[in-house]
Specification:
This protein is mainly beta. It has a single domain, classed as Immunoglobulin-like. The protein is 10% helix and 46% strand. The strands form two sheets. Strands 1, 3, 5, 6, 8 and 9 form a six-stranded mixed sheet that branches. Strands 2-4-7 form a three-stranded antiparallel sheet, with no helix packed on it. A hairpin with a 2-residue loop joins strand 5 and strand 6. The protein starts with a helix and ends with a strand. It binds 2-acetamido-2-deoxy-beta-D-glucopyranose. 2-acetamido-2-deoxy-beta-D-glucopyranose binds next to strand 9.
């Protein structure tokens, strides 16, 4: 019993600061940090710069990396405007299979957005298909 408590405490400490996302891949993403967010629900404030940093292990070698971000609001999938598609501007390219990479992305959140809750799917796509996929439970507020 005590063993489990110690283990649980250890896991909790290790996970501190990391954002808990849903994996829509097969464990390629090992760590996710979102500015000002911890736990599993991220509140994003309008008119601010939002930063994400994700560590992942490449499961393919690739020259190019493409970014795809889709928000699901009330069951409707909407593309997120203003997202850059060239992932190589945010990480080291080309990518070598089996190596670990850190993807750093920053976006300024427009003030004109409505307040919404969304499940945001972020995918990195390489020459041979999906490289990494994660889903974040988020909310945009003032
Ligand atoms: C890489 O990982 C993604 C996400 O899990 C998966 O869809 C894809 O098939 C994998 N690709 C290879 C080449 O293993």
């Amino acid at each position: 019993m005590l063993k489990f408590a110690v283990l649980a405490l250890f896991v909790a400490v290790v996970a501190a600061g990391d954002f808990k996302f849903s994996d829509c891949g097969h464990g390629e993403v090992t760590k996710l940090d979102l500015s000002d967010c911890s736990g599993s629900h991220c509140v994003i404030h309008k008119g601010k710069e939002f930063k994400m940093s994700a560590d992942f292990v490449a499961n393919q070698s690739s020259e190019k990396v493409e970014i795809k971000i889709i928000a699901k609001v009330n069951g409707l999938e909407i593309p997120v405007p203003g997202v850059e598609s060239n992932g190589c501007n945010h990480m080291k390219c080309p990518v070598t299979k089996g190596q670990k990479y850190t993807f750093n992305y920053g976006i300024s959140i427009p003030k004109l957005l409505p307040n919404i809750k969304a499940l945001v799917t972020a995918k990195l796509i390489g020459d041979h298909g999906v490289l990494a996929c994660l889903i974040v439970d988020g909310e945009i507020k003032n």
